[in-house]
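Assess the record.
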Amino acid sequence: HEDLKLLYESAGVEGNNTVFLFTDTQIVVEEFLEDINNILNSGEISNLFPPEEFEAVINAVRPKAKEAGVSESDRDGIYDHFISRVRDNLHIVLCMSCGDAFRSRCRMF
């Protein structure tokens, strides 16, 4: 999850256009596909940031959220703005070999 945190900070906090290239050879545990599925569906990965890091993200995004018209006291609005920035700036490239493993993974998600 550490690499995903860095991607989210780059895309959501810093506002950098970021490409995440993911190949099937990088799948160490199948549960990682659930994170990829969540990124593609909602842009959000549950419990990616522990509470202290979450606070740091909220504080880092607060000025950008304020510029976008989000109240500084609206933590949910600030987080939604963060996720919106991630969705706008994070681009996922999936590279999968065709075969039985690919078909199985497609059925799971």
Remarks:
- Residues 51-67 form the longest helix (17 residues).
- The helical segments are 2-13, 31-41, 51-67, 75-89, 100-108.
